[in-house]
Amino acid sequence: MREGSKTENIIGTVVSDDVSPSFEILRFKAKHGKYVTPGTLVAVSVSDNTFLVGRITSSHEYNPHESSDRVTVRDTMGIKPDYPGEDLSLTIHRRYQAEIIDEVKELNGVYEIYPPEKMPRSGSEVFVPPQKVITDVMGLEVDLEKSLNIGTLAVSIAEEEKIPVAIKREIIQRHVFIGGTTGGGKSYAAKVLAEEIHKQKIPIIFFDTQYEFAPLTEALDGTVLVPGRDYWIKLSSLTETELLDLIPAITHELHVSLLTKAFLTLKEGGPTGIPQTTISTTNKGDFDLNDLIETIERIGPDMAAKPNTVDMVVGRTRYYLSRYDFLGQEFNWQDVLKPNYVVDINCKGFGRQSLQFILASTLRELNELRKRGEIKPYVIFIDEAHLFVPQDESSPCKQIIRESVRIGRHHGICVVLITQSPMDIDKKAIRQCNTRLLFAIEPDQLQSIQGVKADATQEMIGRLPKAPVGTCILTGTYDTIKHAIPVKIRRMEHPEADAGKAPDIFSEVGV
Ligand SMILES: Nc1ncnc2c1ncn2[C@@H]1O[C@H](COP(=O)(O)OP(=O)(O)OP(=O)(O)O)[C@@H](O)[C@H]1O
Ligand SMILES: [Mg+2]
User: Fold this and answer.
1) How far apart (Å, rounded) are the C-alpha atoms in residues 425 and 40?
2) Nearest C-alpha to atom 24 of ligand 1 is from which residue?
3) Are 11 and 42 in contact (CB under 8 A)?
4) Neighbours of ion ligand 2 (CB under 5 A)
5) Cα–Cα distance measured from residue 456 to residue 233, given in angstroms and rounded to the nearest whole number
6) pTM score, two decimals?
7) Which domains occur in the chain, in start order?
8) CA of 245: how far to CAs of 294, 361, 393, in Å?
9) Mean model confidence pLDDT for the chain
């Protein structure tokens, strides 16, 4: 490394005490004014071309003038403190602790990263490593064209603040989790991520329960689809349990068996009921409400159902299913899931049960099409994800979302789960999201993110409840994000499309 650049970046000296230096930990006395925050990367040379990289975990200010004894004396005697400030003091100083995370060898300007093996020496100078080392150690990319540039490092050293957090674009195949309390900046970060994914031309679907992503969709020349108006889900995409849930008036055992048998017959054999092996269209298994009614009428007598029983099942099936206008003909996903295309499924105003059916069936249809290679790979953003993959209850969507996350990597199905309630979301699903953006969170929810904090230190996690809007900790598995990083999410490139702002309720009532 250039000697000059190192000297400019010296921020302290390694001290010797009961825990430092060791193979794992180094503590250093900071130079006046060179202060850092948890997560900042620092370096210490161990030979001419090798240095260790550490990450700040905690700090301590030493000031003997403010010991409780001295403060008591001053209080009792009514005198004001009178001692030189930190810049001139011979005693006051700040001490930082860093955990050693990597060893870096430099050869002709190229940095190679290894697990740490050497120990720093006390008295060594601590410096801020060059930008290239910081990006390499974190597992970030330098080429902004081929990465997802979501913001900058949110740490205190001026040099680091300029470092773009450009994540490998491949991370989307391993799914993303965005969690944190309301108003912390989750949806905003999701939109920034979407802007970046859009640049990489992967088709995007927003499952939008709040009309939050529709403005961005339009700004990116995409399409907003309203279920039941310009987009439908196939009856055949429901499971039999979902079908029965949609028709609550069918509960009698014979009625349930008749409906289920008709439904499964169609699922296995298509509208004609002919077994799948003998039909060869790609739409085998597709059918509509009329096919279901006809099949109920056809198989009713075989099941010893009396004509009035068949009529009742037919009547109730028709009555309930025709109320759900989002059930209908097959939607042509091939036409919209084209490279560079964005689709917003605008479900604002839909009840929770309908949302569940729409999302579950949509995912089922998309996964099937994708497995058959009939549509392009895609990324689906699911906000309020705790409603769809809840922790302790079952939901129509839970299994299909879990499956999408599990098989997604192999099939090019990428899922972004967003929740304001990490406590209530299925832990299995979020653990399989290998990149995570953890925003400000209520202290009582901190426990729920332990499983996804990766190597974020307790100090970093502990500071999360106070994280400013728009900053988060980015964590991942070693092949996505090497080390947990505090990140300041960048501004949207389409700020006019940020629909997340809360309305000004006071101006609305004339205050
Ligand atoms: N990185 C950022 N840069 C600039 N402004 C931001 C940023 N993040 C958030 N904001 C502002 O904060 C507002 C609230 O953020 P956002 O809608 O993302 O919160 P949220 O975490 O999704 O909340 P909720 O859980 O209630 O949906 C945004 O509309 C935007 O005005
Ligand atoms: Mg939101």
Assistant:
1) 30
2) 182
3) yes
4) 187
5) 42
6) 0.88
7) 3-138 (no CATH), 165-233+331-508 (3.40.50.300), 236-320 (no CATH)
8) 21, 14, 16
9) 90
